[in-house]
Structure formats: C-alpha cells, structure tokens
Amino acid sequence: MFVDELKIKMKAGDGGRGIVAWLHEKGKEFSGPAGGDGGNGGSVSVRAVRDIGILAKYRHEKEFRASDGEAGKNKGMHGANGKDLEILLPIGSVVTNLRSGNVVELVKEGETALLLRGGRGGFGNEHFKSSVNITPYEWTPGKTGEEAEFFIELRLVAAAGLIGLPNAGKSSLLNVITNAEAKVGSYKFTTLEPNLGDFFGYIIADIPGLIEGAAEGRGLGHKFLRHVRRTKLLIHCVSLENEDVLGAYRAIRAELERYDAGLAEKGEVIVLTKTDIADEATVKKAEDILKKTKRRIFKVSVLDDPSIKSFSDGISKILKVVLR
Ligand SMILES: Nc1nc2c(ncn2[C@@H]2O[C@H](COP(=O)(O)OP(=O)(O)O)[C@@H](O)[C@H]2O)c(=O)[nH]1
Ligand SMILES: [Mg+2]
User: Are residues 124 and 170 in the same domain?
Assistant: First the structure.
C-alpha cells in the first residue's frame, strides 16, 4: 500500500532530574554537595531519504518518542542524555507541526530538520553551592520535552506518467522498470491506489488509475493529481490486444483532455505493449498506423528483457532532455 500522508504524534525526551547528594571523603566529616545534574531529553528530527515507500512503514505507529534524560548521579556526575530520534522520510515530504503551524519541507537527499527539542536536565544540589549556601538541599526537575502532532504529506513530482486503457500493461511496465509493486491485472477488483516508482531517481507514476476510476466515478480523484500535475512526459501504453490501436490511443487522449487539459499538453511517447502476443506483421502494422500521431513509438513485452532495456534507455534519455 502506498502512503502519501500521515498524521502522527511526536514527543522529545524529558530532561532527567537533578539529585541531592553529598561528598564523603575519608578524614572529612562533610565535604559539600555533590548531586549531579540530570541529562537532557533526546530531540526529534527528520532526515530525507530516497525511499518513496517509507511512509507506509509508519502508518501503524501511534507516537514517535525520543528517550528521556537520566537523573543526575553522585559525585556531581551528569545523568546520561536521552537518545535523539531521527525519523527517515521520503524526499518531497512536507512536515507541518499542527500545534505551532511550522512547516518544513525536505527537498534534498540527506537534508535534516529539528522538529522537537528535548527538555533540559534539572540541576543537582551541587549547582546551588555558593559562599553563602554551602549545604544546599535544592534540586530541580528536568524540563518536559516538546511534543506536538505532525502532518506529513508527500509531494512528489513525477517526471513521467503512464497512461492508457485498463489492461494496457501500465502497472506491469512500471513494475519492471522501477521498484514499484503495483498490482497487476484484475483492476476491477482492486482498490485504486496511486502507483509510483523510482526510475533512476526520477519518479514514474501510474496515472491511468485515476482515469480508469474517473470513468466509473470512483477514482483517486484530485489528491493524486498533485503528484502528476508537473509531470514532464506522458508514456502512453497501447496494447496489441486492441484491434484498433489508433482508436484506443484516441479514446485515452479524449479522456485526458476532459479530465485535465494541462496534462494533455505534456510531451508524449507511445508504447506498444505485449508484443509477445502478436506476430511481427501485426506489430509492424500497428506501429505504422500509430505513426500518424507523430509520436515516438516504443515496442515492449515484459517477457522480453531487451525490449524493456531499450525502452528504459530511451526514456532516461528523453527525461534528461525534458527535465533540463
Ligand atoms: N503477454 C503479456 N501480458 C502482459 C504484458 N504486460 C502485461 N500483461 C498482462 O496484461 C494484464 C494487464 O496488465 P496490467 O499491468 O495490470 O495493466 P494496466 O491495467 O494497464 O495496469 C495482466 O494480466 C498482465 O499480466 C506483456 O508484455 N505480455
Ligand atoms: Mg494498473
């Protein structure tokens, strides 16, 4: 399941308390206060990683919590600081602190942001020692760590989007060229989920889920559109199972224009899919007919590795140009 938004509570660690203790030295009855300060609570921060699927791993978490600082120790020693918590989020995450309204956006790989500060450790009685108070009994508790609820939203910009009729082989193609685990076939019985894959650092999205759904009034709707609105390239899949490949192509173009005219203006290549089910003459004929569109045409079968390789190479070259 692909997760692109999440609401979660986070809490930084509390500071440890300071303690009251006294030095005991041989030969001396009383050697002064020696209660150490508490350790600081751990902080909570986020770091951007190249893993668009990572939010799914967090969807059952109720709270992210950094650990508390330890209480101070004898002989004036500090308690240990709590461990910081670093949460890995996909590049493109927008993190909103719902308490303060602060927003941070993780744009680059490795970028970090501090979300919540741990509480400072309290003071032990040694801290309160002075010329006028040589036997202080005072100590202070640690400060409470910050906490808030956060809304994490993944705003991906898909470089390319796959479109085509249901069963054209879009999900299959996405799966073989990226790390996506899109459901294949029997789309009528699966819920429509956005499918996104990482293609050498470019995001490729399975847009048609949206169009298929729109026709049946149950699409992903506009929420998913945010991932594809700035898409630079449409990869239009046409299956050789269609007797009328040009008709199949035009049906999707018409639907696309109705759905989102902005998307329809993007650059486009055509992929004739499932070449393994047709003979050479049929493939050639389909290709010739589709030449009318003046689009560049690729031919693939997911069962034919060389065809996938030359498709991948072609797409990465085109993406390098259109994204320049
Ligand atoms: N023979 C063959 N079948 C394919 C190929 N690509 C996809 N399929 C099958 O076509 C059906 C629809 O594929 P899917 O990827 O779900 O299409 P989508 O609806 O466009 O996402 C599935 O049963 C796939 O196994 C291919 O290259 N060759
Ligand atoms: Mg599909």
Answer: no
Number of domains in the chain: 2
Q: Ligand 1: which of 163, 167, 172, 178 to mutate, judged by most atoms within 8 Å of the beta carbon? A: 172
For residue 131, the enclosing domain spans: 1-155
Considering the domain architecture, whether residues 238 and 300 belong to the same structural domain is answered as: yes
CA distance 18 to 73: 8
| Type of residue at 62 | K
The DSSP string of 170-239 is HHHHHHHHSS-----S-GGGS----EEEEETTEEEEE-HHHHHHHHHT---THHHHHHHTT--EEEEEEE
- State whether the beta carbon of 171 lies less than 6 angstroms from ligand 1: yes
**Are 143 and 168 in the same domain?**
no
Domain end (from 114, 129, 155): 155
Domain end point (choices 102, 123, 155): 155
Kindly identify the ligand whose nearest atom is closest to the C-alpha of 273: 1
Strand ranges, E, within 57-97: 63-65, 85-90, 93-97
- Please tell me the pTM assigned to this model: 0.73
Do both 203 and 277 map to the same domain?
yes
Q: Per-residue confidence of the chain (324 residues) as pLDDT tens digits? A: 778 899 999 999 999 999 999 998 777 766 799 999 999 999 999 999 988 889 999 999 989 999 999 999 999 999 999 999 999 999 999 999 999 999 999 988 999 999 999 999 999 999 999 999 999 999 999 999 999 999 999 988 789 999 888 889 999 999 999 988 777 875 554 445 667 888 988 889 887 655 655 555 555 555 666 677 778 899 999 999 999 999 999 988 888 887 778 888 899 999 999 999 999 999 999 999 999 999 999 999 999 999 999 999 999 999 999 888
Residues 125, 165, single domain; the answer is no
- Residues 207, 285: one domain? yes
| 209 touches ligand 1 (CB under 6 Å) | no
Q: Any idea which residue has 């819920």 for tokens?
A: 191
184 and 290 co-located in one domain: yes
